[in-house]
Amino acid sequence: MGRREWCFFISLIPLVEFLSITSASTLQQQQCADSGGGPAGVRVGYWSPSSSRYSPVSSIDTSLFTHLYYSSVSIDEKSYAVAPPSTDESSLLAAFSSTIKSGSPSVKTILSIGTNEYKVDVSNAAFSRMASDKILRGVFINSSVELARANGFDGLDLSWIFPATQMDMENLGVLLAGWRARIIEESATNSLSEPLLLTATLYFSNHLFGMPDSNLDYPVDDISKSIDWANILTFGFHGGSNVTTVDAPLYDTTSHFSVSYGVISWLDAGVPPCKLVMGIPLFGRSWFLRNKAKNGIGSPTAAAGTKQRKSNQTGIIAYAEVEEYMNSESTVVTYDNQSVAEYFYNGDLWVSFDSAQVVQHKLEFAARSQLLGYFLWTIGFDDTNSTISKQASESWHQYARGGFGTIHAGGSNQYVAFNSSSISFGSSYSKTLSYLLSSVVLLVTLFH
User: Fold this and answer.
1) Per residue in 351-410, pLDDT tens?
2) Among candidate residues 186, 303, 160, 301, the one with its CA nearest the CA of residue 244
3) What GO molecular function annotation could you give as one example from this UniProt entry (predicted)?
4) How many CB atoms within 10 Å of residue 196?
5) Residue 421 and residue 406: Cα distance in Å, rounded?
6) Distance CA 264, CA 295 (A)
7) Is the pLDDT of residue 436 over 60?
8) Residue 274 to residues 61, 232, 271, 374, 413, Cα–Cα distance (Å)
């Protein structure tokens, strides 16, 4: 295929993905239409207690969000209950919901319970053990509900990153079902409060790259039935790369490491779009170039970028710190149309990140996909003007209430435009995509 034909092929990929998205099954549409009692559209922000020194809870512009997550507490490896926060963080946890609601009573707060990032293997093993045992599941679930209620949270989130075996996946489904049942039961005895929300932070529906078993299947039916929505981790794809690469591209023609693939994998698995929330990173991925003269995507790197003050990790740079580099005359910025991503280099430092322009295009994609909403990870990485958080909120309102129909902005869950009632293929996503790709190949041949 020549360069001209290849460019033509690339230009059609977003169209193919859009058409395949609009072929979502009638069942998925009905599930969304039947969930009229659920939340209207969600604009979610994750806040980490580690950011309290430069981004206190009181500084959050709550008008930009419908839900704010406290991220996170973990599991106690001995008792299998939710681990109590450290002494330093206990006051932050206790004050989180009341501080948020003091200025915006309508904003919902959610307590995220996840893998301990400082001891990942031990923490994941504890989640695996707990999920496999009925008694331990009860201990974990009851402690989570008690902790959420005691601290004024409106919901709970599971961020187990990641289940490592297919048995873990099956047990995850049992855990979520049991958790939902307990929430309903608790609500029935607590007439003063609404039922707690239950969400889960998940990866691709059928691909956990880098795991011993790379083709694990999430328990899709249990996820659809048990949780209010799933937060899809559509970023952090290339941490271990030895060449410069876009960390969270909207499109990737050479691999499955893309936002669009992640979203479509869940739709293809049968999860209704109104149960899916797409992730957007407020951090960039950084490297030191091996050769300053080779500074495009795919250039050799010498090491991960230097540790930054906000992230406190090598190779990770907060958006606020990206902005500081952007203000330098020696910084060269490039927007990549094919992947829908932005990157810059400054000397031998190379960084890929989500700019306001990238966020706008990603949320256009989310709206076309008829998703429930988006989440930002983590809002403490934004600048003092909340530039990306504002762009995300504005874009969501624009596309959700614009020409793309549903997008759950009004809570009616009715598919007005660009849905399978107006574009119906009468087949599953996989079959449709196969057909569309064949058509593209034919078009490329004719173009040649």
Assistant:
1) 999 999 999 999 999 999 999 999 999 999 999 999 999 999 999 999 986 544 443 332
2) 301
3) hydrolase activity, acting on glycosyl bonds
4) 25
5) 12
6) 31
7) no
8) 25, 13, 8, 11, 8
Name the strand (E) or helix (H) holding 129: helix 120-131
Q: Give the 3-state secondary structure of residue 30.
A: helix
Report residue 109: phi and psi, to 5°.
Answer: -110, 140
Place of tokens 């698995």: 269
Characterize the bridge pairing of strands 349-353 and 341-346.
antiparallel
Of 270, 247, 250, 248, nearest in space to 260 by CA: 250
State pLDDT tens for residues 238-263: 877 899 999 999 999 888 899 999 99
Name the amino acid, one letter, at 391.
Q
For residues 316 and 393, give the distance between their C-alpha atoms in angstroms, rounded to a whole number: 24
**Can you read off the two tokens belonging to residue 278?**
């797409």
Q: How many CA atoms lie within 13 A of 111 on its CB side?
A: 30
Indicate the angle between helix axes 259-269 and 3-21, nearest 10 degrees.
40
| Cα–Cα distance measured from residue 403 to residue 163, given in angstroms and rounded to the nearest whole number | 39
Written as six digits, the tokens of 296 are: 């495009």
User: What integer pLDDT is reported at residue 427 of this predicted model?
Assistant: 33
Helix and strand element counts for the chain (H, E): 12, 14
Residue 121 DSSP class:
H
Phi, psi of 341 (to 5 degrees): -155, 165
Residue with tokens 């399978």: 420
Quickly count: other Cβ atoms within 10 Å of residue 294's Cβ.
Answer: 15
Residue pointed to by tokens 């983590």? 378
Q: Which residues pair with 318 in a beta bridge?
A: 283
- Residue 267, token pair as written in the block: 């739709």
Other Cβ atoms less than 10 A from the Cβ of 376: the count is 27
DSSP state, residue 41: -
* DSSP-assigned letter for residue 233: -
**CA 249, CA 362: separation in Å to the nearest integer?**
9
pTM for the model stands at 0.85
Residue recorded with tokens 């209620």 = 149
Q: What is the rounded CA–CA span in Å between residue 218 and residue 288? A: 36
Q: Would you call the peptide bond into 253 cis, given omega within 30 degrees of 0 as the criterion?
A: no
